[in-house]
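[step 3/7] fold_predict: job queued, chain A
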Amino acid sequence: MRLDRLRRAPPTSRVHPKLLPLAFVGALAAPLAAADLTLHSFKKQPLEKFYWSEGAALGDLNRDGKPDAVYGPYWFEGPDFTKRHEIYAPTKTTTVKDKDGTSRTFAGWHGGLGNANAYSNDNFFAFVHDFDGDGWNDVLTYGLPHTPAFLYINPRGEERHWTRQTVLDEVDNESPTFLDLTGDGKPEIVCVNNGNFGYASPDWSNPGAKWKFTPITTGGKWQRYTHGLGVGDVNGDGRLDVMFKDGWFEQPGSLAGDPAWTAHTYFFAPGGAQMFAYDVNGDGRADIITSLAAHGYGFAWYEALAEKTADGGPDFKPHIFLNRAPRENRYGVVFSEIHAVELVDIDGDGLKDIVTGKCFWAHGPPGTAIAAEDAGAAAVLYWFKLVRGKDGRVDWVPNLIDEDSGVGRQVGLGDVNGDGRPDIIIGNKKGTFVFTNQAKKVSAAEWEKAQPKVLYPDADRNSLTARDVIVHTPRASDAAKGDAKKAKAAPKQ
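[step 4/7] structure written:
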């Protein structure tokens, strides 16, 4: 999609302004030579219109050296993604009745082609990795919280369904991940299981067998739909820690004996998505980046301070840059349901940027009992450019990638055309889309024209706290209580 003009949101508007993609921003950065002025845009390619998963991934599955796309039961050959193969049989269909009384049936789950809330229960996240060491990448998937992790073994070029193994009976938390947490050079499932945070590792000589889950907490108090999880070195000791909405767990110096990790309490968010530890302002300390509510509003970075909290961890200063109302945001950008986040250097300037957007129908379409208040708003996808200014000042400059896709529960990354720039794949209730990162050298005049405008320079005066900015999606139980109360108050006929 081409975005060739800037649309400003009026002060009372709740919509987002269309902002041109850009590479360098003059709000806080020093002037650059014309030769350095580069604009970044994204070429959108729809791959599938049916809803099979809340996530998607990129990875080479046919050993041609080019990333392929994984979404639900399918993989698509890269780099053009026009040839599709089945990983498993796409047997799910959905029948709906429209307002005029007619019925229609389509492939997959309810999604954007339906008219009610539903989830792709068996597939929310996808990861590509060679698990059995045969040189062919396999696929690992997780579904709705409290459903299994499945490992699909690559048939090595045979046109057949992939062998599926259940490797963990339940994966909980709304943002589980897959990476090397322990530092042994091999990735693990990081999630909640049986009420505790921890990680699951395979026997790498037999990865299709059940994986061992190692809890890093005790007490089993975290329920399956707990929102917010991230992995990063919070305290700078060289070991990766686990972050969650109410603090972080410090990895001990030795994992021998599977010890509980030290818990540090800090309120980051009522319930967000993926979290990251990254030095945002360049002071050498790891800051925390998180959305505030996967079903409400808010995005923030927490500046790590030199001061320590009572439990010995770093103290933080919150900086909320996506609030509920346009006037509370420097660029007037507003969207809710930030249920998937990635951190990656989009423009090659050496600083990592945020990729996120509105989770399309995270709790269903408008009118659904637990739908977000702006469930019918545009399903936007953005990247926020990190700009470091003087005296530690930071700006996150919003760049609209697309307004008819949004995110699901996972943002997939890869380099689909080998140009060294990160590309994006999205899977959600609208289907799946690949966004190819394109760069164009421009003149100083073109660059200046493309810069998004600061609409509310004093927005930080209006910013709210992490607790105040949130507007939760109403729960089904709350909706039921409300309906019961209305029924009781209604006059008898």
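[step 5/7] annotate
The longest helix spans residues 476-489.
Residues 1-27, 29-35 have pLDDT under 50 and may be disordered.
exit 0
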